[in-house]
Amino acid sequence: MTIDYYYMDGSPPCAVVTLTITALGIEDKVKTRRVDEMNDEHLKDDYLKINPQHTAPVIVDDGFALSESRAIAKYLVAKYGNNKYYPQAIKTRALVDQRLDFDIGTLYPKLIDIYFSKILKTPLTEAQLKKMDDALNILNVYLKENKFVVGAELTLADFSLGVCVALMEAFEISIEKYTNIVRWLTLVKSTLPKFEEIITKTTNDGKKLIEIMSKSQ
């Protein structure tokens, strides 16, 4: 059975799903389908039937369609990885979910601020930089006594937050003063298969999209 995986170039959420597929070693089960956002493929009727949100990533697994990167990652590890990277222990799983919520609600929006600042060719405001610093400090505290984001084992929280922080760094946000984050990100890069390759491609594709979008402003 083939999983259809719809992705967009330069998308951080798609990078999370690609990392999950790679870490689970299920690339042979996946057929990738690029969605060309610049040509409005995400707004076509066939795509909207799969995902009314007109976003990516999306997977279709044996007729079952699912969007949102974190939901997709959880589904994939449950079905194809025996819940590897998403522990079944109630309290540990709750912490993984909390860290994932922290990412989507607190840290990831700061990455989007960076993207828009590049598109609009305007520097981040002092208020934006302060909020980014606050968010990174929180992550730094989470990592103070933990090898990974939740305890001693790699989880989906490391996938998602790792993508976010690595892309911040790639877009010239210094993380040097957050020593726990620096130590952890180095570990994630060396532990997750093809992490740096996936981040490099996401960064390069993102920069191309930013250049195209900035010209239309």
Overview of this protein structure:
It is a single chain. By secondary structure, the protein is of the alpha+beta class. The protein folds into 2 domains: 3-80, Glutaredoxin, CATH 3.40.30.10; 90-213, Glutathione S-transferase Yfyf (Class Pi), Chain A, domain 2. It has 8 helices and 4 strands. It has helices spanning 12-24, 45-50, 69-80, 90-120, 126-142, 156-170, 179-191, 195-215, and strands at residues 3-7, 30-34, 58-61, 64-67. Strands 2-1-3-4 form a 4-stranded mixed sheet, covered by helices on one side. Helix 1 (12-24) packs across helix 6. The longest helix is centred in the middle third of the chain and has 31 residues, at 90-120. The chain is globular and about 45 Å long. The chain starts with a strand and ends with a helix.
Supply the CATH architecture of the largest domain.
Up-down Bundle
How many beta strands in the DSSP annotation? Answer: 4
Question: Which segments are poorly predicted (pLDDT under 50) over 5 or more consecutive residues?
Answer: none
CATH top level assignment of the largest domain: Mainly Alpha
Q: How much of the sequence is in beta strands?
A: 5-15%
Strand order of the largest sheet: 2-1-3-4
Task: Please count the helical segments.
Answer: 8
Q: Helical amount among residues, as a percent range?
A: 55-70%
Main beta sheet strand tally, sense and closure: 4 strands, mixed
**Overall 3D geometry?**
globular
Structural class computed from helices and strand pairing: alpha+beta
Count of all domains = 2
Distance, first to last CA: 44 Å
Radius of gyration: 17 Å
Mean pLDDT: 96
CATH-assigned fold name of the largest domain? Glutathione S-transferase Yfyf (Class Pi), Chain A, domain 2
What is the string of helix and strand elements? Answer: EHEHEEHHHHHH
